[in-house]
Amino acid sequence: MSVAYSERQRAMLQEMGIRVWASPVPVPVAASVPVVEAAAEKVVAPVVVAAPVANPASVSAQGIALRPSGVAAMDWDALRAAVSSCRACALCERRTQTVFGTGHPQAQWMLIGEAPGEQEDRQGEPFVGKAGQLLDNMLRAVGLTRGEAPAHEQVYIANVLKCRPPQNRNPEPQEVAQCEPYLLRQIALVQPKLILAMGRFAVQSLLKTGEPIGRLRGRVHEVPGLPGVPVVVTYHPAYLLRNPMDKARSWEDLCLAREVMTDV
Ligand code: URA
Known about the structure:
Helix content: 25-40%
CATH architecture of the largest domain: 3-Layer(aba) Sandwich
Structural class: alpha/beta
Number of helices: 9
CATH superfamily of the largest domain: Uracil-DNA glycosylase-like domain
Order of helices and strands: HEEEEEHEEHHEHEHHEEHH
Strand order of the largest sheet: 6-8-7-9-11-10
Oligomer: single chain
Bound molecules: uracil
Number of strands: 11
Largest sheet: 6 strands, mixed
CATH topology of the largest domain: Uracil-DNA Glycosylase, subunit E
Radius of gyration: 18 Å
Number of domains: 2
């Protein structure tokens, strides 16, 4: 199911500061669900959950491997090298560098965001801009850090996409699908006791759902195909910078995550 807007509706939504998004290219879909995000997220998007990508190499029309095969069995070094040489989607053309992930490789908490922004693309590390500062403060409030610390205090942070979308536009379904094997392998290597999914793209692509964050918060989920790893859903730090009123809700989410951790 998809949402079609008339020109007039589009103009009105734009006046209200609500962006209307439509996929420019048809992509293989497992499900396509219209989503009205929490009003304050100011995004109305027919969210497309792409079909999972097979793990073997992604291959160009000329038969050139664009994403190496065997991602699901790679160790950290091989995975990092595979990501940094990845050419599986057009984002590789404009990146300064890939942004792999950071933190303790055996962290108990794994945080998953959306995609690198300008600063992250420059520095090669996730969440180094303003949203990252807020994230670090939130982590500190629950006794966690991305800096040097024992595994139980240090988090691992990764994004759904490893390359920056131009002008920080939303990730496209085929980009998410191409990058997914890398993120799944990172999760498998870290073996976190808890995943904190931050923001609509991380949440919906991990959980394979079109449900808005507002309806997913407050309970524990699982990544399909990864039973036993609790997933707590929360707002993206960049969203919280624009909507500080929701910081109280994200604090509740962190408290839920803490509770879950004391039970595992
Ligand atoms: N937003 C994200 O989702 N990830 C980053 O690394 C930076 C900003």
